[in-house]
Amino acid sequence: MRELSIKYGCNPHQKPARIYMQNGGELPFEILNGNPSYINFCDALNAWQLVKELKEATGLPAATSFKHVSPAGAAVGVPLSDTLRKAYHIDQDFELSPIACAYARARGADRVSSFGDFIAISDEVDISTARLLEKEVSDGIIAPGYNEEALKILKNKKRGNYVIIQIDPDYCPEETENRQIFGITLEQLRNNAVINDSIFDNIVTENKNLPPEAKRDLLIATITLKYTQSNSICFAYDGQVIGCGAGQQSRIHCTRLAGDKADIWMLRQHPKVLSMKFKEGLKKPVIDNAIDLYLRDNITEEELKEWETLFEEVPEKLDKQEREEWIKGFKGISYSSDAFIPFRDNIDRAAKSNVRYVVQPGGSVRDQDVIEACNAYNMVMCFTGIRLFHH
Questions:
Q1: Terminal-residue alpha carbon distance, the chain
Q2: How many other C-beta atoms can be found within 10 angstroms of the C-beta atom of residue 129?
């Protein structure tokens, strides 16, 4: 297939629309089910690059959950604890393959944002992953292959309209890429920067203890940023993204957004949250939104009234001390920045979410201020020299 017509572009009035190869070659994917939209393709092709690179960097199966051309979550296939299973609405006796673990973690990073997502999987999609996915609200999936039974399961989603794309895992794009803005073509070398353990060698802080688990999480966070709309900050922990702040004009706003999401991820595992008793018949997205409201400080009176109707017993809110003490229990949070950190306020905010490991390109006139801030919190910080803006 050399060309595919699309119903419309980003919005219904933007038509005609199509996808094709400028060099006249064959498209490196096959549509197995559904009718992908323009935005589906934007998500799918960025998401596939992320999981392919994450698998190559870590050797573990990888998954990501994309919304509006930025990842809501990304992860590798690390087993889930019983607590995470409960927080992610997964039965304790459900058998999770490594690929399914990666997907569950990617979806669980920010379940509210992942509603209606597009998913990418680095490996052949198995039955375990398909069984998890069939219960979630999602637009589509891209992967290099599908188990026969898994494909049957996925084809039944969305009344048979679930988008399923099979990508050629050996496809390699040309070295240069271009795009048009206002009828004017821009061209650049494709972002082929290699992200691996070696980029963390330049440790600039007094604390230089960077264990293997931290390197893995820094890889996850940094590769995720490579495919996140800039400015962007990513928090990672235990083999997965736990908070991503994308597309903000100010880096501190990225950090606050990512940090707030990371805090919610941690607090979702608090005993008070896990013991909530919801009314029978509520769907998972409603429960996820209710938990999100519960963990917010600025809930309105109208929201509170509606929220209280969802429970068998209205739960007691977590107070500030409970929240802070619970977050302190998560040791070794990783933080990555797609460009240099200009002010120490980013480090001060990261410290509130118990960040221990930081990676950034470096190159700010205030680098020393940021290093001193990390030293004050006994953090480890690496300078990579690689900026990862994505637009």
A1: 28
A2: 31
Q: Which two structure tokens, joined as six digits, stand for 355? A: 């960040």
Q: Which domains does the chain have, with CATH numbers?
A: 3-167 (3.40.140.20), 184-267+326-383 (3.40.140.20), 276-317 (1.10.287.440)
Q: Which amino acid is at 220?
A: I
Contacts of 250-256 with C-beta under 8 Å, sequence gap 24+, read: 251/337, 251/339, 251/341, 251/342, 251/343, 251/346, 252/343, 252/345, 252/346, 252/349, 254/337, 255/335, 255/345, 255/346, 255/349, 255/350, 256/349
Residue type at 138 in one-letter notation: S
Amino acid letter, residue 103: Y
Instruction: Write b or e for each residue in 258-290: b if 16 or more Cβ atoms lie within 10 A of its Cβ, otherwise e.
Output: bbbbbbbbbbbbbeebeebeeeeeeeeeebbbb
What does 225-251 look like in DSSP terms, one character per residue? Answer: HHTSPSSEEEEEETTEEEEEEES-SSH
**Residue pair 175/189 in contact by the 8 Å Cβ criterion:** yes
What is the three-class DSSP state of 219?
A: helix
User: What is the rounded CA–CA span in Å between residue 17 and residue 23?
Assistant: 18
d(CA 337, CA 248): 12
| Mean pLDDT in order along the chain per 10 residues (391 residues) | 90 93 90 95 97 97 96 97 95 95 96 95 97 95 98 96 97 92 93 94 97 97 96 97 96 97 96 92 91 82 82 86 95 97 97 98 96 98 96 91
CB 131 within 8 A of CB 99: no
| pTM assigned to the model | 0.95
User: Does residue 65 contact residue 106 with C-beta atoms inside 8 Å?
Assistant: yes
Q: Which two tokens stand for residue 267?
A: 């607090």
Residue 164 identity (one-letter amino acid): I
Under a CB-based contact definition with an 8 Å cutoff, are residues 188 and 176 in contact? yes
The answer to whether 98 and 75 have CB atoms below 8 angstroms apart is no
Q: Known catalytic residues?
A: 67-68, 231, 391
